[in-house]
Amino acid sequence: MLRDPSTKYRPFPTVDLPDRRWPSRTITRAPRWLSTDLRDGNQALIDPMDAEKKGRLFDLLVRVGLKEIEVGFPSAGATEFDFISGLVRNGRIPDDVTIQVLTQSRRDLIETSFASLEGARTAIVHLYNAVSPAWRRIVFGMTRDEVKAIATDGARMLRDEAAKRPGTDWQFEYSPETFSTAELDFSVEVCAAVMDVLRPTPDKPLILNLPATVEAATPNVYADQIEWFCRNVPNRESVVVSLHTHNDRGTGVAAAELGIMAGADRVEGCLLGNGERTGNCDLVTVALNMYTQGVDPQLDLSDIDALVNTVTYCTNLPVHPRTPYAGDLVFTAFSGSHQDAIKKGFAAREQQNDEAWQIPYLPIDPADLGRSYEAVIRVNSQSGKGGIAWILEQDRGLKLPKRLQADFSRHVQALADATSRELNADDIWQLFQSTYLPGEHDRFSLRDYQESGAAGDRLFVGRVSVAGEDRSISGRGNGLISGVIAAMSEAGAPALDVADYSEHAIGKGADAQAATYLECRLDDGRTVWGVGIDADIATAGVRAVLSAANRA
Ligand SMILES: CC(=O)SCCNC(=O)CCNC(=O)[C@H](O)C(C)(C)COP(=O)(O)OP(=O)(O)OC[C@H]1O[C@@H](n2cnc3c(N)ncnc32)[C@H](O)[C@@H]1OP(=O)(O)O
Ligand SMILES: CC(C)C(=O)C(=O)O
Q1: 282/417 Cα distance (integer angstroms)
Q2: At which positions is Mg(2+) bound (predicted)?
Q3: 533 within some domain
Q4: 320 assigned ligand-binding residue
């Protein structure tokens, strides 16, 4: 890298718009969406989609609720042409969906584009040519007027081809490609010239699509450009202002959002942000960002995993696990303080009277996207007691008292450090069992027992195995637990002083079990926990005493 990058790269000029209004606006309704997955997305793939994949993706886009779908570049070749004409011929386009195709401003390509749409009920033909100084000089070697003529010549060809096919309801889109790096007044001049040819009206508007073909500035600059354009384009009421951002600086979504605030009506992009280089605007993210502000995006993203599966199958591109909303890990917390807050959030939600979503660290309810709460908390060496307790509660129905959570989390931490890997629910359950529940290496294990007596004076008589040898023991107490503790001293267990006791049911009905948690102090000042789980609540208590005795 250069020590002084200014010798090679220049700062992007700002727009002179001191009375800009977009910064104080908010997004209050969904824009018109145009999916270009099958065109801009497709042209950026290592292996462009075949007809089967294009068909699958088309069906997904329809299911999601996209009403305008750019289905390809018909003049690119037979695969494209046949797919598009096949959609039309085979009646695969729902009545409320309009397909769109892209073409350069060349007669043969425009004729091919119209031919691919033969018989369509309605269609949008999208014409483009680059207008910025660099493209004028480098790509076309043309003056401003010559570049404007590419656009107007193309517009005339669209008009004439459409006139030959009155059976189709034609709409037109014009993109001054490289808009965001062109002079604003020149973009307006070219668009106005195209409008002069196509003569749009408020009832039959022209879509003027303003691409950040290569993202070159902060998104506020793009918003200024859009607001400036909206103010200066003639007959604004006869124009649908459309945005087409790319993500070269990582702000394609932000630019689209600010562009909507700046007055645009329509947004082009791809599901999950596929597209040239770093991608197009990610429509899923823009839509769900709106959703989290309480605005209906008018897209159905309620099965995000199915969407991801289809998109990855069709594009053969992976989705990064941290991709907003759609990545595998975006609803998962590994770190202790996040887990603690999420767990508390869910507990608080149970007490809440309304539906308002306020779970720390989760900007959206995973369930709204068809995701379960299972993966919300996962455990590794960064995790804390709250997360571990959550997993035991979700997976096993155990509601550990707080100090037991802390006790157990030390064991989990030691295992996570020793293994240097994530611990799944099974690992955690096995560790819990080997730490607190009966096992073959226990000194004390319960064979059978009986209890008798009245309230306040209970007699426990039982048989326990002590280091492999069966012993009969008995003890009295004002309750069963104290009776067992008294009996266990006959078996050689250390004195246990109960500091805390709690119990709860696990599950419901005939299969329900009970869990008992016992915190005991020892004579030497240490604290040990005992846990008992049994179908019978009294037996769960007895097991908890033996568990504590074993751990003592
Ligand atoms: C920003 C975007 O994403 S634009 C969309 C880009 N998508 C694609 O290119 C995918 C499909 N493209 C293709 O299949 C082919 O490129 C085709 C069929 C369009 C054209 O192929 P070819 O005729 O072989 O030419 P090629 O792609 O090299 O085009 C370059 C020529 O088109 C000219 N050109 C570029 N854009 C335009 C335009 N919008 N209108 C008219 N001419 C144009 C160039 O100046 C160049 O002309 P030259 O040969 O006189 O120098
Ligand atoms: C053709 C236009 C809309 C385009 O894809 C771009 O500029 O990125």
Answers
A1: 38
A2: 40, 244, 246, 280
A3: yes
A4: no
User: Is the CB of 70 within 6 Å of ligand 2?
Assistant: no
Per-residue pLDDT of 431-468, as tens digits, reads 999 999 989 889 999 999 999 999 889 999 999 999 99
Alpha helices in 283-366 (DSSP H): 283-291, 304-315, 336-351
Residues of the chain with pLDDT under 50: none
CATH (domain of 193): 3.20.20.70
Kindly report the pTM of this predicted structure.
Answer: 0.91
Say what the pLDDT of residue 455 is: 85
H-run or E-run covering 190 = helix 184-198
Q: What is the pLDDT of residues 368-415, one digit of tens each?
A: 999 998 789 989 899 999 999 999 999 999 999 999 999 999 999 999
CA dihedral (501, 506, 512, 513) positive or negative: negative
According to the model, what pLDDT value does residue 374 have?
79
Range of the domain at 410: 336-436
Contact 458, 477 (CB under 8 A): yes
Given the structure tokens 């043969």, which residue do they identify?
A: 108
CA 432 to centroid of chain Cα atoms: 32
What ipTM is given for this predicted complex?
Answer: 0.98
Question: Is 504 known to sit in a ligand binding site?
Answer: no
- Ligand 1 pocket, residue 139 CB under 6 Å: yes
How far is 205 from 265, CA to CA, in rounded Å?
12
Closest atom, ligand 2, to C-alpha of 178? 7
Residues 230 and 353 in one domain: no
User: In terms of Cα–Cα distance, which of 153, 158, 176 is closest to 239?
Assistant: 176
Q: Residue 265 phi/psi, 5° resolution?
A: -105, -15
Q: Is 244 a pocket residue for ligand 2 (Cβ < 6 Å)?
A: yes
Q: According to DSSP H, which parts of 214-303 are helical?
A: 219-232, 252-261, 283-291
Q: Any known ligand binding at 244?
A: yes
- d(CA 486, CA 481) in angstroms, rounded, equals 9
285/156 same-domain check: yes
